[in-house]
Amino acid sequence: MIEVQKLLYELCEDERVFDPEIDLIESGLMDSLAMIELFSALEDEGIELQPTRIDRDLLRSVKGIEALIASAQSKAGTTDSERAESE
């Protein structure tokens, strides 16, 4: 499972990403550059999200991003364990 908070911390270098109540967009942590970096990092993990086809509100929280990842994985028909077995 991808650790979204850890990934966001690596991208934003701000400990506020560990606050479950933080609005990532409103706080400025998830700006347009951070979104691009997030999508790129997820793609490196084999998770492809199409930025123009997602609800931007899901990028406001860690839980929302986790939901996007889960949805992308279910649509692709893969799980983290299946990907690990194939590597």
Structural class: mainly alpha
Give the termini distance in whole angstroms.
Answer: 15 Å
Tally of strands: 0
Query: What is the CATH first-level class name?
Result: Mainly Alpha
Q: State the domain count.
A: 1
Which H/E pattern describes the elements? HHHH
Q: Number of helical segments? A: 4
Weakly predicted, low-confidence segments: none
Fold and architecture overview:
This protein has 87 residues and is mainly alpha-helical. It has one domain (4-82): ACP-like (Non-ribosomal Peptide Synthetase Peptidyl Carrier Protein, Chain A), CATH 1.10.1200.10. It contains four helices and no strands. The chain has helices spanning 4-12, 32-44, 62-76, 80-86. Helix 1 (4-12) packs across helix 2 (32-44). The radius of gyration is 13 Å and the shape is globular. It starts with a helix and ends with a helix. 11% of the residues are buried. The model has no long low-confidence stretch (mean pLDDT 87).
List keywords for this structure.
mainly alpha, 4 helices, 0% strand
Outline:
With about 90 residues, the chain is mostly helical. The protein has helices at about 5-10, 30-45, 60-75, 80-85.
SSE inventory with pairings:
Elements: H1 4-12, H2 32-44, H3 62-76, H4 80-86
